[in-house]
Design brief:
This protein is of the alpha/beta class. Helices cover 47% and strands 14% of the residues. The protein has helices spanning 8-16, 30-35, 49-52, 70-81, 94-100, 116-137, 144-159, 163-170; strands at 4-6, 22-26, 36-38, 42-43, 61-65, 86-90, 105-107. It starts with a strand and ends in a 10-residue tail after the last helix.
Length: 180
């Protein structure tokens, strides 16, 4: 059966009137899920889906959701290749649901630690500042740092995966830290 895509309205109807048959799979990383997730959803990170799919019923009806939709589409194609039949990808990710249906989200307790996105932005800002200050005060070679960051951001946009952000998320102080 082909993968179908759920509009925000269709997802809203399911959230307001659950049918009892459909399971919502959140394919974001565990730390993202812990920070906020849809009520009743289940965390099955895309990065671990090939091993965790064995815990799922291939004949059940699933809605796949992530931050923006990209990982949910990838997860749907992977599950389809593994023999799952009833896959629906939410066109609305957690970002949209936060704006439209915040009452359907479960939030983790507030932490004093910075979110991973905030740490990522700070690290990029500091590296660019070091590059620019180094160029002004020392040598033009410091412009390599902002250049590498620029190329890296373009590349990660094209592949839709950011390894620097993943590295920050993997740091020991970030266990259970929110992603945004």
């Amino acid at each position: 059966m082909p993968i179908s895509f759920l509009s925000l309205n269709a997802l809203t109807n399911l959230l307001l009137k659950p049918d009892g048959k459909t399971q919502i799979l959140d394919v974001r990383e565990s730390v993202e899920f812990e920070e906020e997730h849809l009520k009743g959803s289940r965390s099955i990170p895309l990065s671990r889906l090939e091993t965790l799919h064995e815990k799922l019923d291939p004949e059940a009806n699933y809605i796949l959701i992530c931050q923006s939709g990209s990982r949910a589409r990838k997860a749907a194609h992977l599950l389809e290749s593994l023999g799952f039949n009833y896959l629906n990808v939410s066109e609305a990710g957690i970002e949209v649901l936060r704006e439209k249906h915040e009452n359907q989200l479960v939030y983790a307790a507030k932490r004093k630690l910075w979110t991973i996105d905030r740490q990522f932005r700070m690290a990029l800002g500091l590296l660019i500042a070091i590059g620019l200050l180094g160029k002004l005060l020392l040598t033009d070679w410091f412009l390599i740092i902002p250049g590498i960051i620029c190329v890296g951001l373009i590349f990660t946009s094209l592949i839709d995966r950011c390894y620097f952000r993943a590295l920050i998320a993997a740091m020991p102080w970030n266990k259970g830290v929110p992603s945004h």
